[in-house]
Specification:
2 domains; alpha+beta; single chain; two-stranded antiparallel ribbon; about 400 residues; ten-stranded mixed sheet; elongated; 15 helices
């Protein structure tokens, strides 16, 4: 009976019910949009970092992560290759020879991270080849170099121009190599672009007189969800190498990018505060609207009390009205959110006017929102709970009415 009465009360004043449902729909949209775009930004930041350079898993000589110098490179990379090849069906890998050095043109010189790569292998691991805006990707021929658009502008060079790269060799001598600009890339991270150049690993080996040294192996699982199990498998394989003695370390991106991972975790915690603020604002809107409904029905409540309806039933009736409104508004809000998110998840939200700021933190100018299951569950829980909390005070107000005075009210 209470359920039917609650529905009739909702339908009796359609305008007020519409206003209340609309406020709930707006709350749902606000919560879903805030979380969707925030999660999308965070995922893009992490994905861009993994795709541009880090990869999912890296293998180094122990100590290289804390002191990435040529002296800490692997002297016998063949044994690591053998471990990776034994599991080649579930992963791709690439090897690099990385050193900090100097790049110079006739106009300027800058300190950069010089990364020697195997172009065909690197293409399977990172997205650098996809970011080549001018020219072409490395083919592996000696004397090629891939630089960023911002670096080309600083050096005042273009495609086909020569630059000189220099870095310290193992014996302390300075190795140098003249390279011709083969391609110019531009990623979503301006800081990364200004600090990285790419050359074939054979050119790096020759310049550094490295005799086959490898700084790192970068590994990507065929299925990213298998990252942890593959990392464990690689560790087990390396542990079984003869005379290993713990000379290698296998790190996942969480270990390689601790600050970024911590930043993303902090950002997710901040979303709970945003959700709380939206729910808090919604509670006050519910209180105002439901209190108006209760005050308009003072005479009705007085009559109900006079004929024997208990306070518990009156309280339950008001709360049931709020519950039905909450469920209706939440369902409509989720449907509206899905209708808006579906096209935006494919086309993205173009924020080109803020592209410089977004690139400084490693995000592209187009944000693709992500509506994940946790956001939906959180919305389904928070909005109805906020609505019910907002209805508690009006419900208490209703049961505190004195029957005689309530009946006299007009």
């Amino acid at each position: 009976m209470i359920s039917r009465i609650a529905w009739r009360n909702i339908l009796r004043n359609k305008r007020r019910s519409f206003i209340l449902i609309t406020s709930i729909v707006v709350g749902v949209l606000g919560l879903v949009f805030t979380e969707g775009f925030a999660v999308g930004m965070m995922q893009q930041m992490l994905t861009n970092q993994i795709g541009a350079d880090a990869g999912y898993i890296q293998i180094h000589k122990k100590g290289y992560q804390s002191d990435p110098t040529l002296e800490n490179s692997m002297t016998d990379p063949a044994e690591v290759r053998s471990v990776l090849r034994s599991d080649s069906a579930s992963l791709d890998y690439s090897e690099r020879l990385r050193v900090f050095g100097l790049i110079s043109s006739a106009y300027n010189s800058y300190g950069v991270s010089i990364v020697g790569i195997v172009p065909n292998e690197e293409k399977k691991i990172t997205t650098i080849s996809e970011y080549v805006a001018k020219g072409s990707y490395l083919t592996g021929k000696p004397g090629q170099i891939l630089i960023s658009a911002s670096m080309a502008e600083k050096l005042k060079v273009g495609l086909g121009d020569k630059v000189v790269i220099m870095a310290s060799q193992m014996n302390g001598s300075i190795g140098s190599e003249a390279c011709r600009v083969t391609g110019i890339f531009e990623t979503f991270n301006s800081g990364f672009d200004q600090s990285h150049v790419y050359i074939p690993i054979l050119t790096a080996d020759q310049m550094l007189n490295a005799d086959g040294l490898v700084s790192e192996f970068v590994v990507n699982p065929i299925n990213p969800n298998d990252m942890s199990s593959i990392a464990s498998s690689i560790r087990d394989g390396i542990a079984g190498l003869p005379e290993n003695a713990g000379k290698y370390e296998v790190l996942t991106y969480e270990q390689m990018l601790p600050l970024l991972v911590a930043q993303l975790a902090l950002y997710k915690q901040a979303l709970y505060l945003v959700a709380g603020l939206i729910a808090f604002a919604l509670i006050f809107g519910i209180i105002d609207t439901m209190l108006m409904s209760v005050m308009e029905r003072t005479h009705e409540f007085g009559v109900s009390m006079a004929i024997g309806m208990s306070n518990g039933k009156i309280f339950t009736m008001v709360m049931t009205e709020a519950f039905y409104l909450a469920i209706t508004g939440t369902a409509m809000g989720l449907a509206a959110s899905y209708g808006v998110f579906l096209p935006l998840s494919h086309s993205g939200w173009d924020l080109s006017m803020f592209s410089a700021s977004l690139k400084s933190i490693g995000i592209g100018s187009i944000i693709y929102p992500v509506l994940d299951a946790s956001s939906v569950v959180q919305t389904v829980l928070i909005i109805p709970i906020a609505t019910l909390l907002g209805a508690v005070y009006p419900a208490l107000k209703a049961i505190r009415l004195q029957p005689v005075e309530a009946i006299r009210a007009t």
